[in-house]
Write a structure and sequence with these properties.
Layout lengths: L1 H28 L2 H27 L14 H30 L7 H30 L4 H7 L4 H29 L3 H30 L5 H12 L4 E13 L2 E10 L5 H18 L3 E10 H5 L1
Parallel strand pairs: 2-3
Antiparallel strand pairs: 1-2
Length: 304
């Protein structure tokens, strides 16, 4: 997750600087869209801080209170980030836009806004490029959307979506600002703010869906399940694997439970030795499998 952490730090620095500049420009030019963009950047800054906090909490070692560790902290804070994008980012931008549509104000000096847009585009664009490189490093040969759905590390796509929304928002504001000054329609400033808000709401819904899925507990892929079953059934003491249960505790930790039918003529020591062999073989093949719980069954016991 080192590359993802680097993309978070770059986005945090960029959004903090941009938010300050956007608010100054919004105040000097009476631009609701620029103020909305400032709100957007503040929310993104808070989001990066929360993601870094979630990363730190997720790496806390297991204790008596949390014997399986704190990995899901990252999924919890990622879900909070998606809610903040919806409520603070999207909601406030739409509210600001509606106010300026109902009561449009003539814009001030457009030079400030254009300067800020150029400044923001450079920083947001740089942050987006870093996020794309980090995401491409993790997705491999998968398509973009399939990589998002299959990813177990929300930091890999949260920052990417945030930066993508930021760059798209800047483009919307730029186009509306051009139309505003060309046709003297100050109402378009409010329209730009509403469009930016709707964009953030759309992005937040996608991120909330993926973060919720991770928080609820996603398991290993069917292909990996088949390989783990093959490893277990290759042991001489095993008849067959009845079921495979799994969940990601964090992007780098999997908890696995196998229900296995053992041969009837085995004693407790034989079954224990077999469990140790299976556990060692699985952990050797899959580094992310931190916990392997094996529930032994016998055919005679299952029939009764």
């Amino acid at each position: 997750m080192t590359k993802n952490r680097a993309s978070i730090y770059s986005a945090l620095l960029a959004n903090l600087l941009i938010a300050i500049v956007k608010f100054i420009a919004g105040a000097r030019t009476n631009s609701s869209s620029m103020t909305s963009e400032g709100i957007h950047s503040v929310v993104d800054t808070i989001n990066e801080i929360l993601l870094l906090y979630g990363l730190k909490r997720s790496q806390k070692p297991p204790d008596k209170l949390r014997p399986f560790g704190y990995g899901k902290e990252l999924y919890f804070w990622s879900f909070i980030v998606s809610i903040l994008i919806f409520g603070l980012g999207g909601g406030l931008s739409i509210y600001q836009g509606i106010l300026h549509i109902l009561d449009p104000e003539p814009p001030g000096d457009p030079g400030w806004n254009y300067a800020v847009l150029i400044f923001s585009a450079i920083f947001e664009g740089t942050s987006l490029i870093i996020a794309i490189k980090a995401f491409n490093h993790t997705r491999g040969e998968l398509s973009f959307w399939k990589a998002v759905v299959k990813s177990k590390d929300p930091t890999s796509f949260l920052v990417l979506f945030e930066d993508g929304a930021a760059v798209t928002g800047l483009a919307i504001v730029f186009v509306m600002m051009q139309l505003n000054h060309a046709y003297h329609l100050p109402v378009l400033d409010g329209v730009a703010s509403v469009l930016v808000g709707l964009l953030l709401v759309f992005v937040s819904l996608i991120l909330a869906r993926e973060s919720r899925s991770l928080l609820m507990g996603e398991g290993i892929s069917p292909e990996t399940q088949k390989k783990i079953i093959a490893i277990a059934e290759n042991d001489k003491a095993v008849i067959k694997v009845a079921n495979v249960l799994s969940t990601y505790q964090s992007p780098e930790e999997i908890m696995l439970m196998l229900i296995i039918y053992f041969k009837e003529d085995l004693d407790t020591e034989d079954i224990t030795d077999s469990i140790d062999r299976i556990r060692a073989a699985i952990k050797l093949e899959y580094q992310l499998v931190e916990f392997v719980i094996i529930q032994p069954q016998t055919l005679s016991l299952s029939k009764s």
